[in-house]
Amino acid sequence: METEDGCRGDQGATLHAVSSAVLAVTRHLSVHEVLQVIVRAAAQLLDARYAALGVPDDEGSFAEFVVEGISEEEWERIGPLPRQHGMLAAMLHGDTPKRLSDIRKEPEFEGWPVAHPVLKDFLGVPILDGEDVLGIIFLANKRRPGGFTEGDEDLLTLFAAHAAIAITNARLYEHNRELTVVAERNRMARELHDAVAQKLFSLRLTARTASALAERDPARTVKELEQVERLAAGALNELRAVIFELRPADLADGLVASLRKHVEVLDRAHETTVRIAADEAVVLPEEHEAVAFRITQEALYNALRHAGARTVEVRLGTEDGRAVLEVADDGSGFVASDTADQQGGLGLTSMRDRAYSIGGGLTIDAAPGRGTTVRLEVPL
User: N or C, which terminus of the chain has less Cβ within 10 Å?
Assistant: First the structure.
């Protein structure tokens, strides 16, 4: 009876470990993040000293190759991404796991860099989507004596099946995000065309009027030329606003510095006062900062183009272990309950999708006549 209870306990612990590993992977939407978490979770799940995951390309190398157990300095000494040769090629061209007591004794063990860690016991399992090999999980040097067991092989094969689903979902999500970006750019192009075309048409008519009045009504001509100047300035502002939206974000100096620079430029380019209050200590992962910056750009674009605001303020700080980024304006506002259906042109859906992609949340506080606040919250 004790043996049966012990077996059930082991099975329960194993299922819990697999469940925890799968949940860790599926929380992420970026393909690169998913690959990194798969490698880390696999190494922990089977108590391996080293782990790697290779995603093949079409040129005899790897599109991505992520590792666990090797420092950045060690990885730099190892050199370029590995080619598909030797044991790597054998794994990629097959569809079955490979478990070895000592990889160094295998004929396929060749061409390993001098700086590569010494490997002994080895377990490799393909990540399959039907008959397609999405990648290979490699584990080496089990920490407990005895090497990898048949049970380890079954466990990693089960985990690899879940990893395949996570990789496929992440790729689909990134593809949908790319389509969203294209749609946003097309929308901006249409708005640019409409807004600037209207101003240029008015500019042309006003210039004709000024020309016709030049001889018989000089005073009226001066007024018409002043209107020409205002229309030209408006058209220039429209161009600047959309160019800033289309320009890729440069976050080399970090989120806070990039936001300050962007706000400063917008404040100079528009009659609306644009200012920022940011906590310099707020630092997010690189991908999270890129998303936060794009959401801020979209919110600022809406405030400057649609709200008729006198003042727009960007605020960045922390609350209860979360980074909080707000874009608040004192403009015309709108009925918040109608945003999903009636305000699609404001890009609110894409902003919410971006926030969700990094595990955050986006809320809109708006009402007619009292402005709008876009609030992004992201775990630190």
Answer: N
**Residues 170, 30: contact at Cβ < 8 Å?**
yes
CA gap 60, 92 in Å, rounded: 11
For the chain, what is the mean pLDDT?
Answer: 78
**CA angle 249-251-256, nearest 5°?**
110
Answer yes or no: are the C-beta atoms of 67 and 50 closer than 8 Å.
yes
What is the identity of the amino acid at 237? N
Q: What is the pLDDT of residues 263-312, one digit of tens each?
A: 887 887 778 899 999 998 888 888 788 889 989 988 988 888 788 889 99
Residue whose C-alpha is closest to residue 373's, from 325, 320, 337:
325
Chain-centre distance for alpha carbon 137: 24
pTM: 0.51
Which tops the pLDDT comparison, 17 or 308? 308
The span from the CA of 126 to the CA of 103, in Å, is: 17
Q: Cα–Cα distance between 186 and 307 in angstroms, integer?
A: 21
